[in-house]
């Protein structure tokens, strides 16, 4: 076992499960910890808790059952650093593993509710930026997905909402005395099931998608926006900024000096170009993305706040506060933004991470080429988003 810090010495005396909210806070702070996943290997490889400072390790629960009979559970974790957070699907098998480890004075706690509760966690924070409206950023730590609610003078819009949390947006805005006018997607998502149609059906809001989605087979009637189109929300105006590349129809949404970039620009990289047209079309898409970045986004003032659709593990992006940063800081931090076109294309099309799980089916659902129930929708999107490529 590794040496324990003073903070770890305090935690070893706490036998209570760790709440998903607390784990998310520790991940954002970059705390060093070991996540011990006692699910089967295929479940772990599909999706597990990860982050800065995290050592994610898979040891199946059956080995703890065997170790209990032999009285040597600590041998299973002898090489792991403490503190340990144990996880499983629902929190029961991991609780058993933790009971064995704690009996041997190992600093281990169980994740309350397991991966189910982790997937259900959705955190809202207000963006502290110079903007003429209140902006809430919604963070799903299990996948790094971000959504936004913009509220002004009793009206609101939601950008890139998740279907699984449609009621959350409605309730939060009702608490603020705001009526939802628009539910906006910046593109046809491949990593999560969109909530725009659900919000339209449950409220008086209009679903809004980029006009190019029709060319991808959009199969439901909705309002579309092209470059320069405006949506009025209370006392403010949202303006569509066409930024193709990640997908052909991708757009960003501008509110004064805040730009909601969807999957075009992140805090630690740019959107991957291969999800829509595959490997064969990735280079052409990357050139389109390069043009969007250079001619549309990087032409904006350095003081523009970039509010992305996802985040990764970059420490500078996770240290404190919501996930947003000045364009000038991103320009200095992300090498791809200063690369010449051929270099950018090479970066954007090589060493890509695995595509999001079920991405083709999720796209079909978001175009309404397929209908799924809520449980199936939730299952489809479990796992990392993998829509970004970093430097």
From TrEMBL:
Pfam family name, one: Rhodanese
UniProt KW Nucleus keyword: no
Residue span of region Disordered: 1-22
Every Rhodanese domain range: 29-127
Coiled-coil ranges (or none): none
Gene3D superfamilies: Rhodanese-like domain, Ribonuclease Z/Hydroxyacylglutathione hydrolase-like
GO MF annotations in UniProt: metal ion binding
Bias (Basic and acidic residues): 1-13
Record has RNA-binding as a keyword: no
CDD domains the record matches: POD-like_MBL-fold (cd07724), RHOD (cd00158)
Record keywords: Metal-binding
Protein name per the record: MBL fold metallo-hydrolase
Classification via InterPro entries: Metallo-B-lactamas (IPR001279), Mito_Persulfide_Diox (IPR051682), POD-like_MBL-fold (IPR044528), Rhodanese-like_dom (IPR001763), Rhodanese-like_dom_sf (IPR036873), RibonucZ/Hydroxyglut_hydro (IPR036866)
SMART domains assigned: Lactamase_B, RHOD
